[in-house]
Amino acid sequence: xxxxxxxxxxxxxxxxxxxxxxxxxxxxxxxxxxxxxxxxxxxxxxxxxxxxxxxxxxxxxxxxxxxxxxxxxxxxxxxxxxxxxxxxxxxxxxxxxxxxxxxxxxxxxxxxxxxxxxxxxxxxxxxxxxxxxxxxxxxxxxxxxxxxxxxxxxxxxxxxxxxxxxxxxxxxxxxxxxxxxxxxxxxxxxxxxxxxxxxxxxxxxxxxxxxxxxxxxxxxxxxxxxxxxxxxxxxxxxxxxxxxxxxxxxxxxxxxxxxxxxxxxxxxxxxxxxxxxxxxxxxxxxxxxxxxxxxxxxxxxxxxxxxxxxxxxxxxxxxxxxxxxxxxxxxxxxxxxxxxxxxxxxxxxxxxxxxxxxxxxxxxxxxxxxxxxxxxxxxxxxxxxxxxxxxxxxxxxxxxxxxxxxxxxxxxxxxxxxxxxxxxxxxxxxxxxxxxxxxxxxxxxxxxxxxxxxxxxxxxxxxxxxxxxxxxxxxxxxxxxxxxxxxxxxxxxxxxxxxxxxxxxxxxxxxxxxxxxxxxxxxxxxxxxxxxxxxxxxxxxxxxxxxxxxxxxxxxxxxxxxxxxxxxxxxxxxxxxxxxxxxxxxxxxxxxxxxxxxxxxxxxxxxxxxxxxxxxxxxxxxxxxxxxxxxxxxxxxxxxxxxxxxxxxxxxxxxxxxxxxxxxxxxxxxxxxxxxxxxxxxxxxxxxxxxxxxxxx
Length: 697
Ligand SMILES: [Zn+2]
Fold this sequence. Notes:
Elements: H1 3-8, H2 11-15, E1 17-21, H3 27-32, H4 34-49, E2 57-60, H5 75-85, E3 89-93, H6 97-103, H7 105-116, E4 120-123, E5 126-128, H8 133-166, E6 178-180, E7 186-188, H9 192-208, H10 211-220, E8 225-227, E9 239-241, H11 245-253, E10 261-263, E11 266-270, E12 276-280, E13 288-290, H12 300-317, E14 337-339, E15 347-353, E16 356-363, H13 365-370, E17 376-379, H14 381-394, H15 399-441, H16 447-481, H17 484-494, H18 497-502, H19 508-518, E18 519-526, E19 529-536, E20 541-547, H20 552-555, H21 560-569, H22 575-584, H23 597-606, H24 612-618, H25 624-631, H26 635-643, E21 649-651, E22 658-660, H27 682-685
Parallel strand pairs: 1-2, 1-3, 3-4, 14-18
Antiparallel strand pairs: 4-5, 6-7, 8-9, 10-13, 11-12, 15-16, 16-17, 18-19, 19-20, 21-22
Helix pairs in contact: 6-7, 6-8, 9-10, 9-15, 15-16, 15-17, 22-23, 25-26
C-alpha cells in the first residue's frame, strides 16, 4: 500500500463502513469466471490493510448474475447508492471502477455522490478521492483509455470475423438440420430422420403453399420436428417437439437451408432503457451472402420461390389481399374474388344460419384502412353453386389429370408420413435398448444408480409402447382412409369429374384446390343483379349472372301479397278487423305469427300505406265537430243520433272514433217529444255495407 493511498484515508473515513460491491454480469460468468470473483473478494483484504476492521467491510453481492446494463433491477447497486448518499460509507471497493465510471451512467452518478459525501473509491489500481480534482481527472482519463482499448479490441475482433465471413469460412452456429463435419465443412445432418423431417417440411410447404397448412399437416399426422438446443441443460442434444408456425417461417426464411452462407442478416442496437433491439435487414444490406456455399435441402431458386409465396400469403392476409391459399371454410372461391367496383380483393366471411355456414364476399379494404363504409357485400352461396356448375360443364378435358393428381398426392402424403412415424418408433426403441444396456452394465451393488437406471429403462419402455401404439393406430386410420374400395372409387371418379366434384366426401379444401388449378380469378359486381365474371387460367372468360338472393332480413318480411291485401282492406275495415280477417284467411306474418291490430298498424306505416282516416276523408266524410256545426247541435247529440241510425258514420280506428257521411238535403233536426226510436233510420233504409261494424257510442 503506497503512502499516498494511505494519506487519503482519514479517521472520518474510518469511522464509517467500507462497502465491497461484487458484480458478475451473467450466471455463466459467475460459474466460469471464479478468478474474477476471487479478485473482487481480495479487495476486502486491502480495506483491512488500510485500517477497516474486517467485520465492518460490508459485502454487497446480491447482483451476481445480473447484467450491468442498467441499475433498474439491481437491488444491490441501489442499496450501495443509498448507503453512500446517506454518508454511511467511508470507502467503496470494486473492480474496474474507473472503467465503469466512464461507461455507465449509474456509476458516474455514484462517483458524484461519493464526491459530495466525501467517500473514497478503491479498485485494484489504487485509492481515489472523487472530491479531489486530480483524482477525478485521473478516473476520467483511465476510463477513456479503457474505452479506447475496448474499441480497438472490438474493431480487431470484428475485422477478423468479417474477413472470415467474406470467405464463407466463419464458423457460426448452424440451424437445425445442418452440422459441421470433422473437417469443419457444413453438411446435412447425418441423422436420417432429421434430414427427412426437414425434407418433409419443404415438400409439405411446396404442396400446400402455406406455413399454417404445413403445421397443420404435421399435427394431423402426429409428426414431430427435430431441434438441437444451443443453450440450456439439453444443449446439443436432439429434441423432438411439435412443429410451430414460427419455426416453419424461420426455416423457410433461412438461406442456409438453400446452401447459402450469409452473415449480417440482423442489426443489434442498444436501447435507452438498457435493452437490446434486434432488427432484420433487407437482403441487399446483408454483410455477406454466398450462394451455393455448402449442401442444402432446397435449391436457391426454390428458396426464392418459397419467400415469394410467403409474401403473397402475407399480402392475402394483409392490406393488399392478393391471392390467398385455400382454407377450410366452405366459401369456394375464397381468395380468388376481385371486386367489380373498385378492383380490390374481396374477403370472405361466414354467417351461421340454421346450423350451416353461409359465405359472404365482402370488399372492405378501404373500410379497414380508412373506416370508410364497405364497398360491396355479396351473398356467396348462389355464386359458389353456379361457379361449381360452370366448372363441371366446362372441365371435361382436364378431368383425368386433376383427379389423378389429387390421387397421387394423397398416396405420397400417406407414404411419407408413415415412413417418418416408423422411424420415430425405431428411435425410441434404440433409446430403450441403450437404457437397458446401461442398467445391465452397472454394478448391482450400487443400489442408488441401479434404481435410477431401472426407472429410466422403465420409462423408455413405456415411451416405446406408446410410440408403437400410436404408429399402429395411425397406420390403421390411414388404411381406413384410403382402403381398396375407396381407391377403386377414386379411380372411378377419375373418369368422372362432375362426380368427384359433387361427391359429398370430397373435402371442400380439395374442391377449392381443384378450382384453383382451373380458375385465375372471379370478379363480382352487384347492382340489380349479381354479375360473376370468371377468368380461367389461360385467359378464357365466362360471364354469369344471378338474381340477388333475399337477405335474412328480407326472408323475415311479411309477404308482398299480404301487404297488398292490407292495402285493399283498409278501404273498408279498421286494423283490428283486418288482422282477424287475415287470420281467418290463413295468413301469417314473416316470422310465422298470427296477426293482431298493432301488427297491421306497424305494417301499414312500414309500407307507407295511406291510413283509414285519410282514405275516408278523401271520400268526402266529415268529422264529428264539422257535422255538429253543420247541424247546429252539440257533439253529444250527433253521437246519440248516430247510435239511433239517424246519421251514417264509419269508424276509422278501433276506439270507434268515426267520420260522418254528409246528412244530405234532409238532415235530422231536434224534435222535442218525439221518441228517437220512431224517427227515420238510415240503417233501415240503406245499409251500404253488410260487414259494417255496429256502432255503439
Ligand atoms: Zn370494392
